Amino acid sequence: MLKDKKIGFIGVGNMGSAFLSGLISMGIPKENIFAADKHKGDIIREEYDVSVFNNFEVANRSEIIIIAVKPADIFDCLSDIKEAVDDKKLIISIAAGIKTQDIAGFLRQDAKIARTMPNIAALVRESITAIYCNDYITKEEEEIVIAIMSLIGRTVILETEDLMDAITGLSGSGPAYAFEIIEAMADAGVKMGLKRKDAIKLSAQVLKGAAELVLKLKTHPAELKDLVTSPGGSTIYGLNVMERAGLRGILMDTIEAATKRSKELGQSKNQY
């Protein structure tokens, strides 16, 4: 699906590098990969052995253009590539908070644009990436977007772009909540006498293992929770404390607050 496609990257930071290395590892010919990054051109050329050009030239040579610049830089980037984009090129944006209609406004109204929201776990290819494709993208092209995003983890397809703010609040910001929980669990372990490095390892693996059970068994978390909750046992006593403290409500309020903030930022481009 991808091996005969010419793919260009504009911006090769941490996220762009994750995609670039993923494409190379799956056997995409390096001569079909182009990159542009005003700060890291020589490093990219040396590390990945791919052709490095300016933004316009990358867009001009590519069938698929992956825009992985910071949101604050995207409109300068779009201005650079505007004349190279026709109605056949597939644009994939990773810029948080930038709507497809805003990108189309800079390029062309019939541009094929996919907006995506990965998270930091892309660095270890464990992201969950939400994808929204505008009306000009065909089913076959949507499959191409999914294939590219699958290089860094799992994917979900959104039917409406309005849900991107909720995605930002839940899975975009979600790793930070998980880090907070891991740190708190590790602190508790240290308080109970464990070494710090062991407590962190235990806490992180607990969350990873629990997540894998939910994903692979496709079982509701409540059912899995019941499997490890014995009558009168230590687990139910711990869960009782969490319920009394209102942990569920705290997490729901956290995600709601992040979602609202994402909407606020989306209403003003100069905030990015």
From TrEMBL:
Catalytic activity: L-proline + NADP(+) = (S)-1-pyrroline-5-carboxylate + NADPH + 2 H(+); L-proline + NAD(+) = (S)-1-pyrroline-5-carboxylate + NADH + 2 H(+)
EC assignment: 1.5.1.2
Superkingdom of this protein's organism: Bacteria
Gene Ontology biological-process entries: L-proline biosynthetic process
Binding site for NADPH: 55
Molecular-function GO term, any one: pyrroline-5-carboxylate reductase activity
Keywords: Amino-acid biosynthesis, Cytoplasm, Membrane, NADP, Oxidoreductase, Proline biosynthesis, Transmembrane, Transmembrane helix
UniProt xrefs under InterPro entries: 6-PGluconate_DH-like_C_sf (IPR008927), NAD(P)-bd_dom_sf (IPR036291), P5C_Rdtase_cat_N (IPR028939), P5CR-like_CS (IPR053790), P5CR_dimer (IPR029036), Pyrroline-COOH_reductase (IPR000304)
Residues annotated as domain Pyrroline-5-carboxylate reductase catalytic N-terminal: 6-97
Principal EC category: oxidoreductase
TM annotation in the entry: 7-28
Pathway: Amino-acid biosynthesis; L-proline biosynthesis; L-proline from L-glutamate 5-semialdehyde: step 1/1
Domain called Pyrroline-5-carboxylate reductase dimerisation: residue spans: 161-265
Main location: cytoplasm
Family per record: Belongs to the pyrroline-5-carboxylate reductase family.
Function (record text): Catalyzes the reduction of 1-pyrroline-5-carboxylate (PCA) to L-proline.
HAMAP family from the UniProt entry: P5C_reductase (MF_01925)
Protein name: Pyrroline-5-carboxylate reductase
Organism: Desulfurella multipotens
Gene name for this UniProt entry: proC
